[in-house]
Amino acid sequence: MATLHSLFHSAREYLNPVLKSSKFKETGVLTPEEFVLAGDFLVYKCPTWAWAAGDPAKHRDYLPSDKQYLVTRNVPCLQRVSDYSGAGETEGGDMDVEGEGDAWVATHKDRKVKVGQDDGGDIDDMDDDEVQVPIRRHNDDDDASLGVDHVAAGLGGVNLNDDRYHRHHHHYHGASGGVEAQEGSDTAPADMDDIPDMDDIPDMEEEDDPAALPTAATTTTTSRAGATSSSSGAARTDNILRTRTYDVSMTYDKYYQTPRIWLFGYDENRRPLTAAQIFEDISQDHAQKTVTIEPHPHEQVSMASIHPCKHANVMKRIIDRMEEGEEGKELRVDRYLLLFLKFVASVLPTIEHYINGCLTRNGILEQPRV
Amino acid sequence: MESQDDTATNSLLQFDPLESAVDPTFWHALSKKKIEVYRLSDAQQDISAQYQVPAPHPTRNAAAATAAAATEASARAPKNVPAARLSFSARSFDDVSVAAATASCTSPGVLRNTNTIEEFKQLDKTNALKEVAERIWADMNSGAAISNPSLLTRFLLVTFADLKKYRFYYWFAFPALLPEEPIRLSRAVPMADVYSGAQISALRESWAAKGGALPFFLLSETNEALGVHELREWHNVMQDGKPVTVGFVDPSSQPANPGWPLRNFLILLRVRWGVTAARVICFRESTLPRDPCSIICDVVLPGAASPRGAACPKAVGWEKNSSGKLGPRMADLGPLMDPAQLADTAV
């Protein structure tokens, strides 16, 4: 369910003229040309990032057709924020923004939202699978009237996916006693590989291939009933690290004139993450304020996005501090996205290392004293 | 799959399988193709996918350490490294694959989209895999795979798109031709144990200078440098009596195992040039200078070389599902693709 907010945002973005002259030092914003410049530099310095053309139907004229947005795929995310024992959420190292409380207006409300709302009548028994997801939404002046419901609906839609499947799963396999044990436990996605009626695929004897390194769960097909997977993953004996991964993309937001981050996550078995699961990987500081599920501006899917309304402010602070720290040195605009990613790292602390690993190790930020 | 106990001298060379990484844009593009182009046709369609050197990962730092243990050829303790992935996106349907990340290789593939779940189930998978394997074999024999080595990585993707429910059933195979006798590994070590920093930097530069996308290549060696050459230069590069050194872009992060794409390359070496032993550089470097993370596998290719033009060897390569069984997967993308949820697709 698209939020009214994102509709509104689209309209505003459409109406807002393209930024022409460079203002990144004064206000922290970028022109599209600067976005491309900084993107080229990012791709050069950090080859796991690549330019993407996106869906031609969503092409933006003010960006080159083959450089519509930036993307890096399969970024591992080893642990949840709640398990993260790193430097602490707001202590993201040298790029930490002073007085972050100022940068992020504290007009947000705590809400408990029931995930899993109506999405068709065939799932009335949903209630025992409800999850309480703390959601606070950004309360920008122009969306104050929009209720938490929109976000909730969006999340419900996403989350329902798995639960609905879960239900079907019960439906198909219930009689065999396969999955009963799972009842009411949590919202762990059902094992999608237990596709209903897929058992009778002919002609596939197990391949005898000793030269294949054993990778997938060679152990417990027995626990199939438990539909274990997503959270535990403990029983695995393979040598592949089963971890969540993210496809992270960066678009240019014409209205806010800043980059904007989009996340699409997969669980340990490469199934799309629910919104609730994605929230587990976002710093509570930020998840509660600024992350929503919206249509990706260049692809035909919805993704979690960090709302960009404060990005310019934050970037302005970071730039100021960098230049203060290194007198006489100027920050080049093509470094903008590297700095931006450092900031993003404070929002996504558990995938920070991978986004930035290739940056810091090469000393690209040659003015580290901030 | 547990059997590899002949630790005597050479162990069985085991390859790290590829895992399909299908992003949601791929499914959207497939739906569109199905509606606008394929319609009811279940003809084979050409698509592409990408793989690349592994991204930076903490376990890579540990790779050097664990590789020490791995030199005991049988070391098989869990290494906890990321899966090697073959990525599919909306761009997989583009005629010309757009430049993806550097250090990224494009694999050609065959899509067989069925019209019903029944057809999906009933499709003769064994034969479908065999057909792709035969194309790979033909490309080896004709020499097409020498001028365009990405043909060695041809894959197969069988799908059924349930457009009413936005559910996508799929099964991916990366066919690997089997050798007459199993390939042996005499040792696997980090590249830095064998080559100097200067040689490794030269290798990176030379590979980047070739366009940064050469999936398989030959190597020449001097005391100062390693040089990358295309396969078609075989007779200029390889000298009689000198060991054969080759390389490939390796998506695997395993400290003592090469990635899956090497399999068909070794078959090509055996069949085309009669190679019986080779040093393989499993190239995992980005174009950036950083800690070297490539490994070297010294391999032995026993058995009689099957004559060129012989019948296509048996092939394997179906992807296992998340329960470790040979079986299809399913992606349910209703919430992400339902038009009602995407009403405001910006401007």
Please outline what is shown here:
With 370 residues, chain A is an alpha+beta fold.
How do the helices and strands line up, and which of them pair or pack?
The complex is a heterodimer of chains A (370) and B (347).
Chain A: H1 4-15, H2 24-27, H3 32-45, E1 50-52, E2 69-77, H4 100-103, E3 112-115, E4 131-134, H5 148-173, E5 244-253, E6 258-266, H6 275-279, H7 284-290, E7 291-295, E8 302-306, H8 311-325, H9 336-347, H10 352-360
Antiparallel strand pairs in A: 1-2, 2-5, 3-4, 5-6, 6-8, 7-8
Chain B: E1 11-12, E2 18-22, H1 24-38, E3 45-52, H2 58-70, E4 84-88, E5 104-114, H3 117-122, H4 125-142, H5 144-147, E6 155-162, E7 167-177, E8 184-190, H6 197-209, E9 216-221, E10 226-229, H7 234-237, E11 244-249, H8 262-273, E12 277-283, E13 295-300, E14 315-318, E15 329-332, H9 334-337
Parallel strand pairs in B: 2-4, 5-6, 11-12
Antiparallel strand pairs in B: 1-8, 3-5, 6-7, 7-14, 7-15, 8-13, 9-10, 9-11, 12-13
Description of the structure:
The complex is a heterodimer of chains A (370) and B (347). Chain A has 370 residues and is an alpha+beta fold. Helices cover 29% and strands 13% of the residues of chain A. Chain A has ten helices and eight strands. Chain A has helices at residues 4-15, 24-27, 32-45, 100-103, 148-173, 275-279, 284-290, 311-325, 336-347, 352-360; strands at residues 50-52, 69-77, 112-115, 131-134, 244-253, 258-266, 291-295, 302-306. The two termini of chain A are 42 Å apart. The model of chain A is unreliable at 86-194, 217-237 and 359-370 (pLDDT under 50). Chain B contains nine helices and 15 strands. In chain B, the strands form three sheets. In chain B, strands 1-8-13-12-11-9-10 form a seven-stranded mixed β-sheet. In chain B, strands 3, 5, 6, 7, 14 and 15 form a six-stranded mixed β-sheet that branches. Chain B has a two-stranded parallel sheet with strand order 2-4. In chain B, a hairpin with a 4-residue loop joins β9 (216-221) and β10. The longest helix of chain B has 18 residues, at 125-142. The termini of chain B are far apart.
